[in-house]
Amino acid sequence: MYKLPWILLSAVALAGCAVPPRGEVPPGASPPPMAAGPAESRHGAQSWTVVASRLAVRVYRDGPMQKLGHDHLITSDGLVGRIALGAPLAETAFELSLPLESLVMDDAYARAAAGGIFVAPVPQKDRDATRHNMLGPKLLDSARQDTIRLTSESVAGGPGSFDARVRVSLAGRESLVSAPFTVTIDGNRLEAHAGFRLTHADLGLEPFAVALGALRVRDDFDVELTLEARRGS
């Protein structure tokens, strides 16, 4: 068993509590199709396929009137994709996708398991309204692009701490983000874990606010991801 680098970014953060991104792509634009896969383009790389995932994005309320709002927990087990494990490690690449329909807003069991500020359930009507806004045309715009795509640009670091530069495609827009990661490989099984903090600006989003900012979404949010992959297709 040994350690190797890995990454995942959740682009869904704060989607249910954010206003439209600035500089939105015109309606005629459409995202490029997903490539054949990193394994096909990296000579000598080992091909791995994601077979299971657990994603949680924690979004926080802020402001003097924050008691009137909710801290949100967005979860999904729908992430899929492929990894081309390179040698040297800087040659590692990955392509991942997350169907927007797999996003779950404030699942009662997930909130109870998270505990702390998330232990209290969110009323169903508030869950439905927040998810509707999240997937609507002013935010993730699932009608235009129903899947978030994550493609590695580069991998760097070592020996025990690594970073990946990731291209995020959602709602016809793209952004580049950086995040740390680790991976454990045991035989034909790969398990990756990432836990990191981002801000709205990292994804071109602006925090939602009402009442002149008395009730608003906190600028930063937390992402937790565990992936399991198997060698081969």
Description of the molecule:
This protein is mainly beta. The chain has one domain (about 1-20, about 40-230): Lipocalin (Beta Barrel), CATH 2.40.128.110. Helix content is about 10%, strand content about 45%. The chain contains three helices and 16 strands. The strands form three sheets. The protein has an eight-stranded antiparallel barrel. It has a three-stranded antiparallel beta sheet with strand order 4-15-14, with no helix packed on it. A hairpin with a 2-residue loop joins strand 10 and strand 11 (about 175-185). The longest helix is centred in the middle third of the chain and has 12 residues, at about 125-135. It is elongated, with a radius of gyration of 18 Å.
